[in-house]
Amino acid sequence: MNQLPDPWSFAFSSPTRIVFGDGTLSRASAAIPFDGPLLIVTGKSSALRSGHLDRLLAALHPRKTAVFSGISPNPRVHEVLLAAEIGRQINASAVIGLGGGSALDAAKATAAALAGANLSQLLLTDSPAPATTLPIIAIPTTAGTGSETSQAAILTDESSALKQGLRGPALTPHTAIVDPELTISLPDNIAAETGFDVFTHALESWVSSRASALTAFYSEFAIRTVLSQLPLLLNDRANPAPRRAMSLASLLMGWNLANASTCLPHRLQYPVGQRTDSSHPGGLAALYPAWMRRAAPLAPTPFSCIASLLGASSHLDAPDAVASWMHSIGMARHLHQFGLSSTDIPALTAAVRGNLATDPCDHSPDALAAIYSESL
Which fold has domain 188-374? Predict the structure, then answer.
């Protein structure tokens, strides 16, 4: 019989330097300790439309910079390769990711590509990114993905129809500049989706077999933060208190992702995202009720915490309470809303990859298919 891991015996890695606070974007140049040219990787419109890109360029002036602003919400390998070509042309000394998780993930992958990594091969083999990966500076404009402190980059490789994580310690950002003021301009739906993403990272990294006493502490903090502060943030984006709290919870969950990982919902969402090009948190929201019903009996501590916070009577009632809370913040989803049907379930199930053993639930193909089916 296998012995369960001892949560009070652990190693924890948190190498990223954090520069946190309102207005820190204006001090970006002093926070980036690299003298050579800088490559900024960002999305196609939001950073420009919000003015964040112009503010960053002004903060970095007169340093030499180049910008690649062609990253999709689900970043593609070919987009990263285009960004890397610009980085080679300027002989970039570091890569700056500015935006939500997609832009930050793309910046990480760009840094790896500039170090000679074959991204398609790494995604297929789950091999780590090369240790020679260029330094990465992460500047999140959302509070949710945790990519500013994690060691993963989620990419879609259209050549192999694969959405998977590029991983490794070298992808951990050297510095994260976390300015909660950047989240003021988020549309309501993005604020809700990214906030829900924090919740999923907190719950799954607490349920995970790799959880430790420290990651559980961070998870509980993040869950309490999201349940109390996200509704306040959605009601009043200008309120600094929930903005700061959500940004802090997000970066802490990046550390949890690196040290405790996630569970089945994330593995199940990647095929959904690849097949439908839907948002990551939206896919998670569709899968969550079915997964929680299975996980709650096996993980009473985290679900008891949630039950207490949401006024449910026991950990077994927590999944229904979370589903009601999700509805209240506009995060109720079903897979059929993404154009999926029962005929897609075999292909989705066959495409699930990654370490499923972090989850206490049954992860046989039949069990995975059942979650997909119940999530339609």
Answer: Dehydroquinate synthase-like, alpha domain (1.20.1090)
CATH architecture of 17-183: 3-Layer(aba) Sandwich (3.40)
51 membership: H or E segment, kind and range? none
pTM > 0.85: yes or no = yes
Structure tokens, 345:
């379930």
CA distance 297 to 294: 7
Cα-Cα-Cα-Cα torsion 324, 249, 263, 284, nearest 10 degrees, comes to: 40
Q: What are the structural domain ranges in the chain?
A: 17-183, 188-374
**Tokens 């970006």 -> residue:** 28
The answer to whether the peptide bond before residue 140 is cis (omega within 30 degrees of 0) is: no
Q: In the structure, how many helices (H) and strands (E) does the chain have?
A: 15, 8
The Cα 197–Cα 145 span in angstroms is: 6
Q: Whole-angstrom Cα distance, residue 261 to residue 74?
A: 20
Q: Quote the CA–CA distance of 100 and 207 in Å, as a whole number.
A: 25
How many CA atoms are closer than 13 Å to the CA of 100, on its beta-carbon side? Answer: 30
Reply yes or no on whether the pLDDT at 237 is more than 90: no
How many angstroms separate the CA atoms of 89 and 70, rounded? Answer: 17
Q: CA–CA separation, 218 vs 205, rounded Å?
A: 9
pLDDT tens digits, 239-263: 999 999 999 999 999 999 999 999 9
Indicate the helix (H) or strand (E) that contains 216.
helix 213-235
SS3 state at 70 = strand
